[in-house]
Amino acid sequence: MLQVSSCGIGVALRRLESTTMRNTCKKCLVLIFSIGGLIALFRTWSQETSSGVDLRPRHGSSVKTLLVGQIEDINGGYEDVAFRIKEQVARQLARNSCVCLADKETFQLPFSNLLFPRVWAHKLDTVFLESHPDPEGVKRHRAQEYSKSQSRSYSPADLPIVAKANSPLQYPTQGVEVRPLKTIILPGLGLKEGKKSMHTVSLTATLGTFDVAATVDSVSVKGEGEKHVILSSRDLSALNRLLQFVTYTNTVFHPKTADTVEFATEGHRSFFTIKVGHGSIPRLYNTGTQKEYNISALVTIACKTFIRYDKLKDLIDSIRQYYPTITIVIADDSEHPEPVTGPHIEHYIMPFGKGWFAGRNLAVSQVITKYVLWVDDDFIFSANTKLEKMVDILEKTSLDLVGGAVREVTGYTATYRHTLSVEEGGEEGDCLHVRSGYHHVIEDFPNCVVADAVINFFMGRTYKVQQVGFNPRMSRQAHLEFFIDALGSLHIASCSDVIVNHASKIKLPWGETDTQKAYQKFRYNNAESNIHNEDFYFKNRFKCQTGN
Ligand SMILES: *[C@@H]1O[C@H](CO)[C@@H](O)[C@H](O)[C@H]1NC(C)=O
């Protein structure tokens, strides 16, 4: 064992890891390997016999109770000091009690709704529960699923920690991270206090153990290799010296969690978190080193079609005028699929009527370029459809997805910019607020704004769009659903200067061809609206949607 420790486990010694180590430590390595082998053997044996690691979410740990109590203590006091509430400010605070209210109609004129759009409110809970045979049962089931999902996503790092005043303890408040089952030096630990006959600190963890990577004369250490360690010395400087060598080893594997460590001395306790987890693996695309953007190498066009082969052909022809070698991926769920062929075209035939979002999912899943451009099958490229502009903003900013504009035959150009916000609403569910508009203009890109939802014509980072995915339950009409799922994970913008044309949408009924009639009948049916209500009510746990 002596030989093993002289070989160097720990940080100060990592520097030695060069030449000398190779020669002197060959014997040690053999020893380490045999010990390692023994440990591995013991582990397999003990795993087989022991009951294993408890993977149930640890929501109500003792540390949590401690921390919550600590905050309550700190917030107490000063009851005898009077205060006046500032209504204007206080009203902005979330109260976990959103209400489903539409704007009142103040005056009524023809077109007044167009000029002054009022906010409408849709009571999803009422609408969905009324149509359900067992409303109480489905409510209970939603509550259970919600509570399970909350505890799965819970991280000890989410707990608020307050540092008390005048603590003699010095410790890191954030940025400490360890890989699962690995060891780190805890940075920044110290004790700053006056002369005492004995100086003592202790550290306590729940998901790992402490040790010291060095020894310092006159400092005693109790509990090395355990979850609770005590360091004490008559000499404060010596104690602080050893505190520079305290290590933490994670012992309970988890790919992403945190350990809350208590650091204490006589009369004082402090807490800090150590993030435990694998690092995130980069997803890089090798796109070559040309000076100008090579759109064919960077972008794939993805599209879903359903029996509108005439429209699709016009789209492909228009794309080829400007981008002759860009790959086009087409997902097709027509009943009698027709061949769509040509260079750089991938045509995927799906079971009949699989639907809109299923097709988007399939098309996007096949993309291997850095970016994917979503188009509808009735769009037409023009000289204004400059994909270079979308690539440029995605290359130069932190944005993940950028929408363009769609010009109707009437000349009207739509960007469909919306902001989304979710207001907490307690047990009944939350409120989703959808509003026309955007958050702010983007510097250096005066035609672009940041928003939460954009139009059907957008370019995104392929792997980010794939991560969010398209819920295949939404088979006919869906769009907002993707952006709700993307809330908090995609950074989204809308640029008004990248324009695609829309082949005529509004057709007079007597001018419709049979294909158009079949398409209309299939796409716009009402049976699906209940699926939308259910998805919002159950899957997203909304009780209300408002919009304008
Ligand atoms: C652009 O990319 C395509 C596809 O990777 C490639 O075939 C083509 O040679 C590239 N063009 C230039 C000018 O590098």
TrEMBL record:
<dbReference type="GO" id="GO:0001574">
    <property type="term" value="P:ganglioside biosynthetic process"/>
</dbReference>
<keyword id="KW-0735">Signal-anchor</keyword>
<keyword id="KW-0333">Golgi apparatus</keyword>
<dbReference type="Pfam" id="PF00535">
    <property type="entry name" value="Glycos_transf_2"/>
</dbReference>
<protein>
    <recommendedName>
        <fullName>Beta-1,4 N-acetylgalactosaminyltransferase</fullName>
    </recommendedName>
</protein>
<dbReference type="InterPro" id="IPR001173">
    <property type="entry name" value="Glyco_trans_2-like"/>
</dbReference>
<keyword id="KW-0472">Membrane</keyword>
<keyword id="KW-1015">Disulfide bond</keyword>
<feature type="transmembrane region" description="Helical">
    <location>
        <begin position="28"/>
        <end position="46"/>
    </location>
</feature>
<feature type="domain" description="Glycosyltransferase 2-like">
    <location>
        <begin position="305"/>
        <end position="456"/>
    </location>
</feature>
<keyword id="KW-0812">Transmembrane</keyword>
<feature type="region of interest" description="Disordered">
    <location>
        <begin position="135"/>
        <end position="154"/>
    </location>
</feature>
<keyword id="KW-1133">Transmembrane helix</keyword>
<comment type="similarity">
    <text>Belongs to the glycosyltransferase 2 family.</text>
</comment>
<keyword id="KW-0808">Transferase</keyword>
<dbReference type="GO" id="GO:0000139">
    <property type="term" value="C:Golgi membrane"/>
</dbReference>
<comment type="subunit">
    <text>Homodimer; disulfide-linked.</text>
</comment>
<keyword id="KW-0328">Glycosyltransferase</keyword>
<dbReference type="GO" id="GO:0008376">
    <property type="term" value="F:acetylgalactosaminyltransferase activity"/>
</dbReference>
<dbReference type="InterPro" id="IPR029044">
    <property type="entry name" value="Nucleotide-diphossugar_trans"/>
</dbReference>
<dbReference type="InterPro" id="IPR011143">
    <property type="entry name" value="GM2_synthase"/>
</dbReference>
